[in-house]
Amino acid sequence: MKRTIDQAAVEERVVEEEEEILTEEDNVAEEDEEEQVVEGEEEQNGELFSTPTKSPSKKKVKREVFDFSKYAEGDIVEGLDGKYKITLIQDKLCKVPVDRPVRIYADGIYDVFHFGHMRSLQQAKNLFPSTQLIVGVCNDELTNRMKGKTVLTEQERYESVSHCRYVDEVVPDAPWIVTPDFVEKHNIDFVTHGEDPCVDEFGNDVYAELKNQHKFLTIKRTEGISTSDIIMRIIKERDAYVERNLKRGYTADQLGVGLIERTSHMLKKGFESVVNVFSPRKKQQQQSLLDTSVVSVTTEEQ
């Protein structure tokens, strides 16, 4: 039998009151810090240098973790932001909104946007019957620093993702690590990612806090396709693609081809022309075209 519980609303009011108190304490701490910096100013070589003293430590707002042990599957929880149904998803109880679409967040680089990306977004979109899919795309500066150079620019990647049928909203300049603050700012209910582990430079799970809040859901990776695989194919067949684009009118400078490589392609092209002229197949093709032309002229004269 389902039950309606108002405890969530009470807990949220308590958190809001704690945040207001801590905000007032932070303002006082900032004023004290400014006064200490002014008092610590010294004159050195005719210039004014500040020697700030140690500022008081600021308290962080402690987020109340929803205690799922108090609830059973099917319970309805009423909060300040609406009603939620306690639902078992991927072997854990989760709070699922019942009076609005579920807001799902997925993020990535999405370079050379391919069907593997699309399938992952499709999975995220289909996690619930009514879903708003928000997709974060990291910018060039962050991606180049953390992962390496991209093929497409950030604007091209934003545009590519925005045209995917499963995406409702694109968040440009997305953070590398999704924090609870980011989740609250964008009203996100669940964050999705592949099953592969994601750790920071210290080996810590970057989604640990979201997992503790039961706000993290996994999606499966599409095997056999990735941006790295596509780039590897192009690198492996580089000469073929260079020759292909040279034939299509691109210049050696546009393709970044040096003098030696340019000469090599020219010699190869010349050699192929000579081979084609003297090859038996080429002669047969030319003779066939000649015979066809003669037959055509004879028919017209008759």
Query: Structural class, judged by helices and strands?
Result: alpha/beta
Alpha-carbon distance between the two ends: 96 Å
Shape: elongated
Helix content: 40-55%
Low-confidence stretches: 1-18, 31-60
Count every helix, treating DSSP H or I runs of 4 or more residues as helices: 10
Would you report the number of β strands?
A: 11
Strand content: 15-25%
Rg to the nearest angstrom? 32 Å
Report the average pLDDT across residues.
Answer: 77
What strand order characterises the main sheet?
9-8-7-10-11
Q: What composes the largest sheet?
A: 5 strands, parallel
* Succession of helices and strands: EHEEEEEEHEHHEHEHEHHHH
What features would you describe in this structure?
There is one protein chain. The chain is α/β, with parallel strands linked by helices and 302 residues long. Helix content is 44%, strand content 18%. It has helices at residues 7-39, 115-125, 140-146, 154-162, 180-185, 208-212, 227-236, 238-247, 259-278, 280-301, and strands spanning 4-5, 42-44, 47-49, 76-79, 82-89, 92-97, 102-108, 131-137, 169-172, 190-194, 216-219. Strands 9-8-7-10-11 form a five-stranded parallel beta sheet. A four-stranded mixed beta sheet has the order 1-4-5-6. It has a two-stranded antiparallel sheet with strand order 2-3. The longest helix has 33 residues, at 7-39.
